[in-house]
Specification:
Blueprint lengths: L2 E2 L14 E3 L9 H10 L5 E6 L11 H6 L4 E8 L2 E2 L6 H5 L10 H13 L3 E11 L2 E10 L2 E8 L3 H10 L11 H17 L6 E9 L4 E9 L19 H7 L10 H9 L1
Parallel strand pairs: 1-9, 2-3, 3-6, 4-7, 8-10
Antiparallel strand pairs: 4-5, 6-7, 9-10
């Protein structure tokens, strides 16, 4: 049987988009959390935590936020993995529907957080609000949602790499990266090698985050294992043609490596 190994790549990812409060982002790949995420993903649309100067987390309507609502927004700060975003044209900044001078409203803050998730720009968002006379300063602490960058293979022949890229169409550069997508790709590679007769194939995916966590470069380390070979080729049933002549025209020969595509072509003949 093929085997898929997971690398120890450090991923600060939450695979659950935001809708409910007080659901912590999954940042480790323990078996329990993986099962929990798979169970909850269809039900939850994300994680939202509002931090106020009083250090109260949003669980309903915090009283501290009520005292700040209605005051003008004096400043909006974005931190990506704790690094400030200085470019006002940054895609994260442009995705926010909030503007300096707008009155602070909880509904607008929630709308801003949803905008980041819906644009697939964030995997986790924390918002802090504090007084900045004569208004309020908002600070968005964002764990970015990585997008796929390079996809490469180690241990695969160049010809097979081209075929693998065609098969793994979901891993297009710029596509949203998730751990589920990575797992499906690894399974696809194992299945691909099974079709070539490498039934002991092992695949270990690795992820390297770049661009402050916004880009995920993927590497699949492939160990095909020994190829299976055909021990015997027989034709059974009522065959009107000469069996020896028919066997001679088949691409599948005893001793040759197993190839599912070649076998399919033989069956069609």
């Amino acid at each position: 049987m093929g085997r898929i190994e997971r690398s120890a790549a450090q991923l600060a990812l939450a695979g659950i988009p935001p809708r409910l409060l007080d659901v912590p982002a999954a940042r480790t790949r323990t078996p329990f959390l993986s099962r929990l995420r798979a169970f909850c993903a269809p039900l939850l649309s994300g994680v939202l935590a509002l931090l106020l100067p009083s250090l109260l987390r949003a669980q309903g309507e915090p009283m501290a936020l009520a005292s700040l609502q209605g005051k003008p927004i004096a400043r909006i700060e974005l931190l990506v993995n704790e690094k400030p975003v200085a470019d006002p044209q940054d895609e994260l900044m442009r995705a926010l529907p909030l503007r300096v001078g707008d009155p602070l409203r909880l509904a607008d803050v929630r709308r801003a957080i949803l905008a980041l998730y819906e644009a697939a720009l964030a995997s986790n968002v924390i918002v802090e609000a504090e007084e900045m006379p004569p208004g309020v300063r908002l600070r968005f602490r964002i764990s970015p949602q990585p997008r796929i960058g390079r996809v490469s293979f180690q241990g695969a022949d160049p010809e097979l790499q081209s075929r693998l890229l065609l098969r793994l169409g979901e891993l297009a550069p710029g596509a949203r990266f998730t751990e589920a997508l990575l797992a499906r790709a690894a399974e696809e590679i194992v299945e691909f090698y099974h079709g070539l007769g490498f039934f002991d194939c092992e695949v270990a995916p690795e992820v390297t985050l770049a661009d402050e966590g916004r880009t995920a470069h993927l590497l699949f380390r492939i160990v095909p294992g020994p190829p299976a070979r055909l021990a015997e080729v027989r034709i059974t049933g009522d065959v009107k043609l000469d069996r020896k002549e028919l066997l001679a025209h088949l691409g599948s020969k005893p001793g040759a490596p197993f190839d599912a595509l070649r076998l399919q072509n033989d069956l069609q003949q």
